Amino acid sequence: MTKLANYSGWARVVLHADMDAFYAAVEQLDNPELIGKPVIVGPRSQRGVALTASYEARPFGVGSAMPMAQVLQRCPHAVVVPPRFERYQAISAQVMEIFGDFSPRVEPLSLDEAFIEMTGAEHLFGHPREMGEKLKSAVLDATGLHISVGVSGTKYVAKVASGHDKPNGLTVVDPAAAKAWLAPQPIERLWGVGKKTAPKLRALGLETIGDVAALGEAELRRHLGAAGGHFCALAHAQDPRRVSRGKAAKSIGSDRTLSRDVCARHEIEGYLRSAADRLARRLRSKGYVARGVRVRLKTTQFQMLTRQCKLSSAQDTASTIYAHAVKLLDTFDHPGPFRLVGMAVFDLDWSEASAQLDLFAPSTDRRLESTMDNLAERFGKDAVVRAKDLDRRGSVFNDGVNLDYLDYQDGERVAKPG
Ligand code: TTP
Ligand code: MG
C-alpha cells in the first residue's frame, strides 16, 4: 500500500534545471579531444561574440556575449568551435522529454533551462532533494551531460538556487529558510534588477537582497513604483507564479495504421480496448491522470476525423478511458473504412490522488489494473490478457505500424518506440 507521502512538509516543490556550459559541453561530448580544454563556442572570425565558454575557460574571465577578440586576448589557447544549432536543439528536445518524465508540468525558458513543478510528487520521487538527484542522474545517463538544479518552494528561489553552485550543482533551499538564504546575496540576483535598477537600489544604500527586504514595501514603492512591490515580494521569497504548462506533455497517445482497412465496429472497438490498456498503463507508470479522451479515425482518402470529450473527473483506468472512447465512436458520422485508428488521453495532471486511491477505497478497476501492471512488469506485457482480447492476437492489429507518442505541444509529436 502506498503511503501519502510528504516527507518535506513543503507546501510546494519547484525545480529549476539549467545545463552547464550547454553548447560547449555538447561540443566536448561529441569530440572527446576537447574534454578538459578551454572551449569557446563562437565564430572563428574575431568580429563576432562568444556564445559560451566551457568551465575550463571561465577562470580566464571569458563567457557568453564577449567579443571574440577579447576572448582570445584573455584566453589565447582556447579552442574555438563554430556552433551547431541543430545538434543543440536535438539534445534540448531529449532533455525536455526527460523533464517530462518527472512531471506533466514543465516550463522551458530556453533551450537549456526549465522549471519543473514537482508539488505532490514526493510519493513518487521522495524528498525534494532526491527529486533533484534523480533528475540530474536521469539527464546524465541519457545524454552524458551535466545540469545544475535548484530546488525550493517558488520559481524565483529555485532559479537562484540552480545558479548557486554551478557546474554540476544541486542546491536545495527549504522554503522556510528561503528568505534568510537570499538575504546575503547581491541585489543583482533579484529578478528584474539589471544595469538600470541596480544603481538606483545602491543609491538607496541597498547592497543585498536582505537590505531590500528590510527597507519595506512602502519605501520601495515610493522610490521605484510598482517594481518596488515586486522586488519586495521576491526579497521575502514570495513568488506565487505557477509553473505554466508551456511545453509540458499535453497528451499521451497511440496511433495505429492498420495492416488492412477496417470498418467493422467490433474491430475498431477491439483496437480501442488495447489502446486504452496501453495508455492507462503509461499514465499510471508516470503517476499521471487524464481529464480528456480523443479518438481519431483516418479514412482511406486520408481524411483525419477527430472526436474528443472531457471526463467528469481525472482518471487513469483503461475501463473508463475505453468507455468514453466507445461513446465517441457513436459520434462519427463516416461509415469507413478506416486505415488508421488513434486514441489519446489529454489534459494530464499529477495523480495527486494516486496515493490516496491506494490508501482509501481503491476502485475495483484500479485494483485489477494495478495488479495487471505488476504482472506485466514482472512477466512481460502479454502475461495477462483480458479474455475478450485473446482472439485479437495475431489479428489485423498486430501487424500495423504503431506510433505511441507523447505530445509536447500542438503539432509537435515525439514518437516513442514500442
Ligand atoms: P546559459 O545557460 O546562459 O549558459 P551555459 O549553459 O553555456 O552556461 P551555464 O553553465 O552558466 O548555464 O545559456 C545556454 C546556451 O545558450 C549557451 O550554452 C549558449 C547560448 N547563449 C547564447 O548563444 N548567447 C548568450 O548570450 C547566452 C547567455 C547563451
Ligand atoms: Mg546553462
How would you explain this protein's 3D organization?
It is a single chain. This protein is an alpha+beta fold. The protein is built from 17 helices and 14 strands. The chain has a 6-stranded antiparallel β-sheet with strand order 11-10-12-9-13-14. A 5-stranded mixed β-sheet has the order 5-6-1-7-8. A hairpin with a 2-residue loop joins β5 (106-110) and β6. α3 runs antiparallel to α5, α10 packs antiparallel against α11 (226-235) and α12 (265-286) packs antiparallel against α13. The protein starts with 13 loop residues before the first strand and ends with a strand. Magnesium ion binds next to β1.
Low-confidence stretches: 353-362, 390-400, 408-418
Number of helices: 17
Query: What is the terminal-to-terminal distance?
Result: 30 Å
Strand order of the largest sheet: 11-10-12-9-13-14
Beta-strand residue percentage: 15-25%
What does the overall shape look like? Answer: globular
The helix content is 25-40%
Largest β-sheet summary: 6 strands, antiparallel
Mean residue pLDDT: 85
Total E-strand runs: 14
The helix/strand class is alpha+beta
The bound ligands are: thymidine-5'-triphosphate, magnesium ion
What is the CA-atom radius of gyration, in angstroms? 26 Å
Characteristics:
17 helices; alpha+beta; binds magnesium ion; 5-stranded mixed β-sheet; globular; 418 residues; 14 strands; single chain; binds thymidine-5'-triphosphate
